[in-house]
Design goal:
There is one protein chain. It is built from 15 helices and 13 strands. The protein is an alpha/beta fold. The protein has three domains: 96 residues, no CATH class; 211 residues, 2-enoyl-CoA Hydratase, Chain A, domain 1, CATH 3.90.226; 45 residues. It has a six-stranded mixed β-sheet, with helices on both faces. Strands 1-4-2-3 form a four-stranded antiparallel β-sheet, with helices on one face. The protein has a three-stranded mixed β-sheet with strand order 9-11-12. The longest helix has 19 residues. The protein is globular and about 60 Å long. It starts with a strand and ends in a 6-residue tail after the last helix.
Length: 391
């Protein structure tokens, strides 16, 4: 009995339709023993000896559905030569059924009631060059190799730390640098001179008040905040003074945790007051933190949530002192970054998989993230120390 390997291109647009027809005349794909997905998730199903069941279809479908930015994937099916009559069409149909795409192919976003921007995507280098022309303020970064903590300061105090185009580029570059930091554990994002961030610089907004410029800004900031959100280290926003407003609220929501000083104004998705919606991915980050129902309430009301109310809502994780908020934030974060970097990175990866993958996919991935830590250097050291768990 031989082994036949076939690599198939799967198009989300045509799944269950033209793509299925395109492959329907292939020779039968026989007894399925394994299926692999090329989407950054690696092995998605192992040892399926007799038939393509719903479980494998659901697992692959969930992975396809969460592979952000991908329109095409490669499915590799490893088959035995025993003919069971399972064709590529059967495989595509099963996966398409799991994605709910047989009746409604390529549903895409719901744009029935909105003016949907249809302009082309732009190269990030072009956007960087364009935004760099709009100066004012800066982003500073300070790493502490001893503690594994990095401090990022939003520095434009004359404008309550509002973002200029240049600052957007600098934050983009800072996140890129931190992504390469192998020994990092945590990040604290704060604003200069006792205020967090009031969003985008209105002077910049007035000079670039058109859909194309808005799309450019949204593209770089959504990209930056998405990567900030997915950093392998713990991220904390320290909200002080005038608070986190507009784009500042989006920045804070993209972090893992939000700490607010007692006298801080709070956090407010006040975009509606400006005739817009969150532009930097804030709808997604807020819904991830408080749920879609509460996110809609906060965005539609444009209310500024005080620290005490933020604790009740779940958007604020802790209230810290007005006297030394950054010192308090460091101590708060250190209590959550005592583990070795590789353990912290694994914690973040496991949590991200829960939020970004269907549980049928996240559970197998979680096991594979855990396994290398078991018996790893940090685990062995803890066992040698005979650690006792005390309050």
């Amino acid at each position: 009995m031989g082994i036949v390997i076939r690599t198939l291109r799967v198009s989300k647009v045509h799944m269950g339709g033209a793509q299925e027809d395109r492959h329907s005349d292939c020779s039968p794909m026989q007894d399925c023993s394994a299926m692999f997905l090329e989407s950054g998730n690696g092995l998605v199903c192992n040892k399926h000896p007799h038939r393509l069941c719903d479980d494998i279809a659901n697992t692959v479908a969930a992975s396809l559905d969460t592979a952000a930015g991908r329109d095409t994937w490669t499915l590799m099916c490893v088959m035995t030569t025993q003919d069971t009559g399972v064709t590529p069409a059967h495989i595509f149909r099963s996966i398409a059924k799991s994605l709910g795409m047989l009746k409604k192919q390529n549903k895409g976003p719901d744009t029935r009631y909105v003016n949907y921007y249809t302009g082309p995507e732009e190269d990030m280098k072009t956007i960087v060059l364009s935004l760099s022309e709009y100066g004012g303020g800066n982003i500073t970064m300070e790493k502490d190799e001893a503690t594994g903590l990095v401090m990022i300061c939003i520095n434009n105090p004359q404008k309550r730390n509002a973002f200029s185009g240049k600052m957007m580029v600098e934050l983009h570059n800072a996140v890129t640098e931190i992504e390469k930091w192998k020994t990092g554990k945590g990040l604290i994002l704060y604003g200069a001179e006792g205020h967090f961030c009031s969003g985008g610089d209105l002077s910049f907004a007035r000079e670039n008040c058109n859909p194309h410029a808005g799309f450019q800004m949204a593209t770089i900031m959504t990209n930056t905040l998405h990567r900030l959100h997915n950093l392998p280290i713990m991220t904390v926003a320290v909200i002080e003074g005038a608070g986190a407003l507009g784009g500042g609220a989006e920045l804070a929501a993209a972090c893992d945790f939000r700490l607010a000083s007692k006298s801080a104004a709070g956090i407010g998705f006040v975009h509606g007051r400006m005739g817009i919606i969150p532009a930097w991915g804030g709808v997604t980050w807020l819904a991830d933190v408080v749920g879609c129902h509460k996110a809609l309430d906060l965005i539609s009301s444009s209310q500024i949530v005080t620290p005490s109310k933020g604790i009740q809502t779940g958007i604020i994780d802790a209230i810290i002192s007005d006297d030394n908020p950054l010192d308090d934030a460091k101590e708060w974060l250190k209590a959550r970054t005592r583990s070795d970097p590789e353990v912290i990175h694994a914690m973040k990866a496991a949590i991200r998989n829960v939020t970004e993958l269907a549980y049928k996919t996240s559970l197998p991935v979680e096991r594979r993230i855990f396994a290398p830590l078991w018996g790893g250097p940090a685990n062995k050291l803890a066992l040698q120390r005979n650690v006792k768990h005390k309050l």
